[in-house]
């Protein structure tokens, strides 16, 4: 399940030779265009081709047209190799050990995407591998590279429209038509976010040195506040900012202004165009309604405003005249500048099996990086970045996503679906040893580094950091999230968690264990480490280290049959409204509160999945007592104090958790009375360590306890701190 370290070491040292990965033992040659077996025993050009055993097809973007896929006369495109493999399959069949498509470093035009189907599948004994000859060397990009020298100064009329004096001489422009870029290539602005309908295909974007640049906005940093509002589309700006904004709007093209923000809840973002902007009243009408409505004193900012191009990295696209305006970044003249124009997924695969993608660079699309379905697919050692939607969206079983870097992603890093919840058939899918950072840059909420769907998926030994909202969510039973390192997340959202899931009796057996979680939330963004929300049941949180959360360390928002044990929480719950662990009883409160309680509708709907799963013997065998849970329904007249009634917080275990505080402030756990009455809450301890004798590495980012820490005197199990995070070679 996890790559052998010796093999991984050889893999890196030999520039992706991956002899073990290919498992090739075939004829040592390639079937050429004339069906002649070509000799591959000659010494290869070490600068281009690493040694790879077995049957190999060679691809080189710099080759001439009309190649035959041999080392000396390679194909020019990946599609040619794909076609050749189909011919081999329909003829003599795949060779024992499979085929490696070895792709030389270079730029490969994939603006229309690479499309794979079941015809492109390998087999258990003959895997097909699409592999870069050099790590990240083979670039599959949906963008167009721009030349810094082609940017020119603005005209006097253009300069006059900028609000910032310094920007007038700094901002430059580029005629996109010189690169053959059309309006269709650029696309339109899009609505997205939890509180507004999301489009999967958005506008072209600008990336400099692989970093996403910012559409011109005001203010540059932080937010403005809403004032009074009228329903779900109309709102005013707060009084304190009205005059300043009114002055700035003199240069704004008001019918092109968009707004982005959190208009009601701190966990529901929206990005929408303004349909109307009354400058005198500072009243705005949105192009679409916002789910949940608009509240007073919530955060938003304006963007897509040429006049506000006043900071390095800000850009504006004149879509009518096809002109790109940019405030250049430092070292702009020597930077890599890419404009993402493709509206296709870079790789699309349907019903594909026994295929590996290895070492590829995948970038610059207005859609997704990889969208695939099938079984026994592997994505290994790839770098996926500059993606508008999701880096990967993969459905199937026995999928391996390993050793990749994913960053600068608009929505989620990895969406993974597999297994069958009803029968508890586990997918065997693994997300292992990946480095995912800076995701959720467009859709700001509920877009995780990993979003799991289905049964029996594993997320292990990864490193995730820097996102506005959560890191991991899981929809389904028997999902395992272990030994991950997660930090600097939920930095602009409220009522959320680094690990988050909620509202189901159908996710039993999922575990969050041995993860290192720190620096969650910031400022007024009150966020939690692990969040079992809204009566989520049947979960385990064991052996996690959670440090420095603006909200709670662990939140259980109702629910039953949950285990929270042997977790180390350091400086969690120092916010005045937080605690290290809180266990509410909102489902029971909703039941007792009736239709006037906000949770009542939820507890009426939740038993649907409970009733469904109770018809499956697999659930009754795997989870003793599950079949005895009594579904609550509207008009229920039985005993509301029966612990087996679904809304009651029964059979929970909150035990042997340690709460360390390095400052003056300390808190204790906050347990609803019914949680303690119907379950087990015991041996949880608060410990002050102001002089850091028990956490000696605290100031250096090492959160392991010393050998003589008080926690061990209480019976706390030592945690495998050194195993948390990515696995690296010595």
The general outline is globular
Average pLDDT rating: 90
**Structural class of the secondary elements?**
mainly beta
| Poorly predicted runs of 5 or more residues | 1-46
Strand content: 25-35%
Q: Which radius of gyration do the C-alpha atoms yield?
A: 28 Å
Give helix % range: 10-25%
Mind describing the biggest β-sheet? 24 strands, parallel
Q: How many strand elements? A: 55
Distance between the termini: 21 Å
Number of helical stretches of at least 4 residues: 13
Account of the protein in words:
There is one protein chain. With 730 residues, this protein is mainly beta. Among the domains are: 1-140, no CATH class; 143-341, no CATH class; 583-723, no CATH class. Helix content is 12%, strand content 33%. The protein is built from 13 helices and 55 strands. The strands form six sheets. It has a 24-stranded parallel sheet that branches. The chain is globular. Residues 1-46 have low confidence and may be disordered.
